[in-house]
Design goal:
Chain lengths: 312, 483
Amino acid sequence: MLSRSAERLYWLARYLERTENIARLVSVHMNLLMDLPKGVEMGWQQLIRINGSEQEFHEKYNAVNERNVTRFLLTDATYLGSLFSSLSAARENIRTSRELLPDEAWEQVNEMYLFAKDNLDTIVNRRSRVLFLNEILKGCQRFTGLLSGYMSHNHPYRFIRLGRNLERADMTSRILDLASLLLSESRSSEMRQYETILWINILKSLNALLMYRQTMRSRVQGDDVLNFLLLDTSLPRSVSCCLLEISDCINELPNHDGLPDKLVELEAYVQAIDTRQTTQLQLRGILDDLQNKLGGLHGQIAENWFLNTMAE
Amino acid sequence: MKSIWENYKTDTAYDELMHSEFQPRPVSHRLCQYLNSLKKGDIDKRKIAAELAIMEMGISFTVYSDEGNIDRAWPFDIIPRIIDAREWRIIEQGLKQRLTALNAFISDVYDEQAFIKEGKMPGDIINSSKNFRKECLGMKPRHNVWANICGTDLVRDKDGVMYVLEDNLRVPSGVSYMLENRVITKRVFPELLQDIDIFPIDDYPTHLQDMLSSIAPHPNGKPQIVVLTPGIYNSAYFEHAYLAQQMGAKLVEGGDLVVTDDDCVFMRTIEGLEKVDVIYRRIDDDFLDPEVFRKDSTLGVRGLMRAWKAGNVALANAPGAGVADDKVVYAYVPEMIRYYLNEEPILPNVPTYLCSNKEHLDYVMAHLAELVVKPANESGGYGMLVGPHASREEVEAFRQVILADPRNYIAQPTLSISTAPTLCDDRLEPRHIDLRPFILQGANTFVTAGGLTRVALKKGSLVVNSSQGGGSKDTWIINMEDN
């Protein structure tokens, strides 16, 4: 497999995962706002915080309100982290890797892109925004299902899984980072009153509510949710599960050098986290550190397999 | 309700489907019957379905413009063009004959040049051809085939005869559109395709793969075949990716390949360097290897010519094959067929005046307003004069262009090229068409069943190139004997 192709498939998967994550995030957030009374400190600004793009947002928009934030996150083609930018980048990557994928894979992404492009204006309105996001979520799921059913589980497939799970682990850690704010000692009593709803929505944003109930068999509470999303090894979007998937792919790929050891290290690091024993401040530090480690992992993957750093 | 055939005129040129306004030719009888059974709204729905399929399948081509490159949807006319299989078998033989002679000629050019020595052609035509590569002298590609993939343009004149307009021997494109056109037609007219006995075309990638395998330097084992593309910004990128995918070959760019000191070609993979045996290159000679050709090329691979000359890698088409893709050389193809094959040409050439020849030039100058004048080495329909369609000023300006560089121009009578019914708004109108079949030659020779029919969508226009307002049609070769 060409190094160039490996890189493109990896990014294709990352961008599609990002597309799906943004869609789910916005959709869960809209749901949450309908449940909360006005004035609770859980507004639209939280969404731009997750992506770490407050600065860019404020350069482009004045008010942090529903209209501006959804436009910024969903359809702003000048913001590289938006849903539409991610989807466009995914399409560009698959367009240049068509020879490795079943026909339907390209058609699926292309259709989704054309749909998004034709419906960018509809997100202004809440009702049509819900439809828009559902369509995107379905499209991303179709793509994943299509590959798992139609494509040999070969090296190209492994690079797709690799990209998807790295992006996923990164997003989960960002959501947990935001969630850890909710544990802040200084949170208002009003906030405490609605805490359960907030945690439920965090679980929903990672499609984890049902699995939480089955696994934990207890009421939804902060520490348990954090532990579950970090440490559970069977929930697809938990950090540990993503790391297991990554390690699975890496072990099957040629020339993996020291990477498997690095992953064992990283898995152990995550498993050692116990949210019940840490203060909110410590937890934020740990999650920051985790995100850096994931960034480092990406760097090593690129160095190992992608074109730019290959030796002659 | 008005018929979609209302005011259909067949008097300006030979019409491929209609004998007269009301009388379909035998080959198109079933199609016309079927079209007449559709309601007016129906045909619109089919057209929209085709446009949607093209969008979703992402069939596109790139147009270069001042505002940057635009990726355009492939313009497709849903009404197919039909040829009787009995006629097609003759054309097929003619195309095989032609490419065999052309390859014998190219081999000769890079060897002893007997054709020239025996006075069949002036030597300075070769020496002044910008596609003659002296670096290729003495090379012997496998099977003595230089042009492995050829796209030959055919047009039918008013007399009903199919003429060869040109042979594209460098990097001919369009075959992916031919294949996709059939896919779309199957989606749009499923009931029709089931009824009619049409030759299938979707075995092309298999034949392409077989041909490429047959030219591999070491015939045993499974050769590593790659498609070399200039990249995403090339107008035919879609086709490069499509063919690689259909063959299960790797699509590579120059940067993916490296030539080692022992003159072997490798690609950079996740497992390290992997050897490459056959390169289906879609890059012009000029950009192929900065070590030999254009020094500023960033698209090619340094050392590729060394590897090819050492016999360690096969290139299709071989460098230098373009020497026969020259409109002056074209004029000599009938003579090549007689000389190398000892046969009479099956397919006629269009009469061609060479401006480098004094007598021909005098004729061209005297009849410029009636002729089509083309540069010898351009493709894409650029830089040509269509005398009858040009203003007096344009004709005079072109006269000076020719006189400045007569070797580079040829002239041909303006053919009244054939038409086919084409959907224009809500009814059918005749539009001019040509046909580009694709011929593969390696250990064996293969011709596509039909080819890519290109159509000039503008009324009266003769220019079928997609970059200049042309579209395309599905091409059906129909077996009439069983019907």
